[in-house]
Specification:
With 144 residues, the chain is α/β, with parallel strands linked by helices. Helices cover 36% and strands 31% of the residues. The chain has one domain: Trna Endonuclease, Chain: A, domain 1.
């Protein structure tokens, strides 16, 4: 059975929730949809995550766009793919998360292979607009 991107959502969401972020799925940012967007309680720190099963180069292009609206941006991929990508990724402030699937010892878990740096491209107006949207969605849907 081939791994599908949607199977990566819950472990990555749980990872950031354990770090104190309130997460929302499929947050619209202009014509794109950020797979996971989150903010900490004070909304002073935001994170955007692009999930990919294989195509990490495409994920980098998308992550660069999301760096306009988040303090830190990550790509999350299955462990073996992330391990290969880590060897080739340049330093563009984008972090890399490896998602271990159930067949690995310990089952679902997330490891940070490359730490994301603070985005120099972040625009506060874009970030606050997304945080406000997330808060409204959370009140409506009991999320975030």
């Amino acid at each position: 059975m081939a791994l599908r991107e949607e199977l990566l959502v819950q472990p990555v969401e749980d990872y950031f929730t354990s770090l104190g972020y309130r997460m929302v799925r499929e947050m619209q940012f202009f014509s794109k949809y950020i797979d996971l967007f989150g903010f900490n309680g004070g909304a002073s720190s935001t994170v955007a995550v692009e999930l990919k099963v294989r195509d990490w180069r495409r994920a980098i292009k998308q992550a660069k766009i999301y760096s306009l609206c988040a303090n830190r941006v990550y790509i999350a991929m299955p462990y073996l793919v992330a391990k290969r990508a880590a060897k080739e990724m340049g330093s563009d402030c984008i972090g890399l998360l490896a998602v271990h699937t159930p067949e690995h010892p310990g089952g679902w878990r997330v490891d940070e292979l490359i730490a994301a740096s603070e985005s120099p491209r972040k625009r506060e107006d874009f970030a606050s607009r997304l945080v406000d949207s997330c808060k409204v969605a959370g009140e409506r849907d009991n999320e975030c």
